C-alpha cells in the first residue's frame, strides 16, 4: 500500500505522484494530515453553502477559515503536523456550530456530517480521504484541477484579507465549488464548466488583491533594487504577505537591524509606501529553492510569511521563523490573525545577536512594471510596436524550481530575438532577470510585474494592448505565452487566463500530472494548451 499520494506540484515523482515521501520534503503523515484538512474544509464549505441557501449569515471568520485552510495545504507552506491537525479540529468545531443551525440537512455530503473529534480516529480517516478516493480518472482530474485552482485563489484572497479587503461573492464561490467537487451527480461537462468558472473567479480574486495592495501601498513603479548588503545585522523576509512586511519594517525602525527581501517578496520594493524605510535595504539571493545556501550565508534570522519553505539545514534551523499559514516543526511561529498586529520582538532581538549578511552578489535589478506603470509607458510601447522595434512580447510568468530541465527558461530567454520583450511575474523571473538583456529604446527587455498574483497585471496589459490596437481578439496580439508552473498559485493563473479567452499557452517543464489524458485533450482541443520542446525548436516555432 502506498504511504501517501500527492501530485499537486510540478516536481512530483516521474510526473505521476509522490507515494513514499514528497519531493517537496513532506512526510506521509504530513500529506495525510493535509488531505484530512482539505476533506473537513470541504465539509465546512458544504455546510456554509447550505446556510447561505437558507438565508443564514456567513461570517468573515468562517470565510477566512476556508481560505486559510486551503492555503495551509499549498506546496511548501506547512510541514507542521500538529499545527495542521489543530486546524482540522478547529474546522470540525466551526462546521458543527453552523450545522446545528441548519433547518434542512438533506443533500449534505459525508464530509459535512463528519464530526469525529478523537485524534487517533482522525488520523485513520486521513488515510482514506486523499485524491485517490475518486476512482474515475477523468472525474478525479477535473476535481483536483478545481481544488488546486481554489487553493491558489485562496492564497490571493488571504493576502487581500490581511489588508481587510473581502469579497463575499468570491468566498461564496470558493465554498460552493469545493462542495461540488464531492457531488457525484455532476457530469464531465459540468466539471469542465466548474473549472472554467474557477478561472473567472480567479480573475476576481486577483483583482481584489491588486486593489488591496495598490490601495494600501500605492501603484508599483519602476525601481532599481540593490542586491548587495550593508554592514548591519539583518532580517530576511520571504513569501508574499505585504502586511507582514509592513509590520516588520515598522517594528525594526531605529533598531539598527536592516530588512532584506528574498524570492517572491522582491516586488515589495516596487511599492512607494515601502520606500520611506531607509533600513529596507534590498533583495538577497534568488528564487525559493536556493534558500539552503542563501539562508545559511545570510547569517541572520529569516521570516517565512507564506509557502516556499524547503526542509531546513541545521546551520539555520534555529534562525527560521514562520507566521500565518506557514509552519515548520521546531521553528518558532509568530502568531497573529487577520486584523491583528503581530509582535516581531523575538526575531528582531535574535537579529541583533547575528553577524551581518555575507555578500553573495552586487549590483541592481530593475522591476515595477505592473499595469499602472506600463499604462504610463503605453505610448512608448505602442510606438515601439508600430515601428517594428518590438516584434513580440513573451509572457514568461510563473514559478521556478529545482529540476535541471528548468535551465530551458534561462536558455530560452538568452536565445530570444533582440526585438522581443519578456513580460514576467512570479519567481520564474530569477531564471533571467539578472542576464542583462538590455532594453529597446529605453524599454527594458524584462518587464517584471511583481509576484505570482501580479500575473493579473500581465492580463490587463494584454487587454489594454488589444484595445489600443483595435483588435477583436486578445489572441491577435503579438504575444507568446511560455509559462513555467510549479504549484497551485500557478494553476489559478492558468485558469484565469483561459477564462479571459487566452489560447495557445505553453506550459512547462511538464504538463501537470493531475491532468488525465482525456482532460489534457480537452485543454488542447479547446484552448491550444501545449508544452515546451527544445529551446531551438521553440525559438523556430514562435519566431520563424
Write the layout of secondary structure elements.
Blueprint: H1 28-53, H2 60-72, H3 81-99, H4 110-113, H5 119-126, H6 137-162, H7 168-180, H8 188-217, E1 223-226, E2 234-238, H9 242-252, E3 258-262, E4 280-283, H10 291-298, E5 302-304, E6 320-323, E7 332-334, H11 345-352, E8 364-367, H12 371-376, H13 378-387, E9 392-395, H14 407-415, E10 420-424, E11 439-440, E12 443-444, E13 446-448, H15 455-468, E14 479-484, H16 488-499, E15 505-508, H17 517-527, E16 530-531, H18 535-543
Helix pairs in contact: 1-2, 1-3, 1-5, 1-7, 2-3, 2-6, 2-7, 6-7, 6-8, 6-16, 7-8, 8-16, 14-18
Strand content: 5-15%
Shape summary: globular
Radius of gyration: 23 Å
How far apart are the first and last residues' alpha carbons, in Å? 50 Å
Poorly predicted residue ranges: none
Outline:
The chain is α/β, with parallel strands linked by helices and 544 residues long. It has helices spanning 28-53, 60-72, 81-99, 110-113, 119-126, 137-162, 168-180, 188-217, 242-252, 291-298, 345-352, 371-376, 378-387, 407-415, 455-468, 488-499, 517-527, 535-543, and strands at residues 223-226, 234-238, 258-262, 280-283, 302-304, 320-323, 332-334, 364-367, 392-395, 420-424, 439-440, 443-444, 446-448, 479-484, 505-508, 530-531.
Amino acid at each position: 500500500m502506498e504511504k501517501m499520494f500527492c501530485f499537486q506540484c510540478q516536481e512530483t515523482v516521474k510526473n505521476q505522484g509522490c507515494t513514499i515521501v514528497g519531493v517537496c520534503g513532506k512526510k506521509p503523515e504530513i500529506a495525510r494530515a493535509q488531505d484530512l484538512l482539505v476533506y473537513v474544509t470541504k465539509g465546512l464549505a458544504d455546510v456554509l453553502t447550505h446556510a447561505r441557501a437558507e438565508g443564514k449569515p456567513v461570517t468573515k471568520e468562517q470565510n477566512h477559515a476556508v481560505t486559510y485552510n486551503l492555503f495551509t495545504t499549498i506546496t511548501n507552506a506547512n510541514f507542521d503536523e500538529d499545527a495542521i491537525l489543530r486546524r482540522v479540529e478547529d474546522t470540525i468545531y466551526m462546521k458543527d456550530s453552523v450545522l446545528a443551525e441548519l433547518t434542512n440537512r438533506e443533500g449534505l455530503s459525508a464530509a459535512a456530517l463528519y464530526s469525529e473529534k478523537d485524534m487517533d480516529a482522525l488520523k485513520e480517516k486521513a488515510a482514506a480521504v486523499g485524491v485517490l478516493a475518486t476512482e474515475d480518472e477523468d472525474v478525479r482530474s477535473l476535481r483536483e484541477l478545481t481544488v488546486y485552482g481554489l487553493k491558489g485563489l485562496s492564497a490571493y484572497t488571504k493576502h487581500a484579507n490581511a489588508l481587510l479587503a473581502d469579497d463575499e461573492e468570491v468566498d461564496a464561490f470558493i465554498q460552493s465549488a469545493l462542495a461540488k467537487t464531492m457531488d457525484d451527480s455532476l457530469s464531465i461537462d459540468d466539471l469542465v464548466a466548474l473549472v472554467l468558472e474557477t478561472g473567472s473567479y480567479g480573475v476576481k480574486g486577483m483583482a481584489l488583491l491588486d486593489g488591496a495592495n495598490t490601495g494600501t501601498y500605492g501603484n508599483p513603479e519602476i525601481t532599481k533594487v540593490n542586491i548587495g548588503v550593508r554592514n548591519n545585522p539583518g532580517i530576511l523576509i520571504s513569501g508574499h504577505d505585504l502586511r507582514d512586511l509592513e509590520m516588520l519594517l515598522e517594528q525594526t525602525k531605529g533598531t539598527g537591524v536592516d530588512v532584506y527581501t528574498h524570492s517572491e517578496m522582491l516586488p515589495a520594493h516596487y511599492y512607494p509606501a515601502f520606500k520611506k524605510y531607509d533600513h529596507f535595504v534590498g533583495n538577497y539571493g534568488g528564487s525559493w529553492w536556493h534558500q539552503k545556501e542563501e539562508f545559511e550565508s545570510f547569517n541572520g534570522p529569516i521570516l517565512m510569511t507564506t509557502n516556499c519553505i524547503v526542509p531546513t539545514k541545521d546551520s539555520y534551523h534555529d534562525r527560521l521563523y514562520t507566521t500565518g499559514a506557514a509552519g515548520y516543526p521546531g521553528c518558532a511561529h509568530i502568531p497573529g490573525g487577520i486584523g491583528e498586529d503581530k509582535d516581531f520582538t523575538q526575531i528582531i532581538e535574535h537579529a541583533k545577536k547575528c553577524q551581518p549578511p555575507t555578500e553573495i552578489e552586487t549590483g541592481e535589478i530593475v522591476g515595477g512594471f505592473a499595469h499602472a506603470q506600463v499604462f504610463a509607458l503605453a505610448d512608448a510601447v505602442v510606438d515601439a510596436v508600430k515601428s517594428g522595434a518590438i516584434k513580440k512580447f513573451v509572457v514568461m510568468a510563473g514559478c521556478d524550481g529545482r529540476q535541471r530541465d528548468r535551465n530551458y527558461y534561462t536558455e530560452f530567454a538568452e536565445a530570444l530575438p533582440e526585438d522581443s520583450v519578456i513580460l514576467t511575474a512570479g519567481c520564474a523571473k530569477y531564471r533571467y532577470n539578472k542576464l542583462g538583456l538590455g532594453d529597446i529604446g529605453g524599454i527594458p527587455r524584462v518587464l517584471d510585474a511583481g509576484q505570482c498574483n501580479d500575473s493579473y497585471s500581465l492580463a490587463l496589459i494584454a487587454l489594454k494592448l488589444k484595445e489600443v490596437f483595435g483588435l477583436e481578439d486578445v489572441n491577435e496580439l503579438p504575444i507568446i505565452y511560455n509559462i513555467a508552473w510549479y504549484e497551485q498559485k500557478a494553476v489559478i493563473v492558468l485558469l484565469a487566463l483561459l477564462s479571459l479567452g487566452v489560447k495557445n499557452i505553453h506550459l512547462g517543464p511538464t504538463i501537470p500530472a493531475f491532468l488525465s489524458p482525456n482532460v489534457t485533450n480537452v485543454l488542447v482541443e479547446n484552448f491550444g494548451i501545449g508544452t515546451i520542446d527544445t529551446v531551438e525548436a521553440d525559438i523556430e516555432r514562435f519566431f520563424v
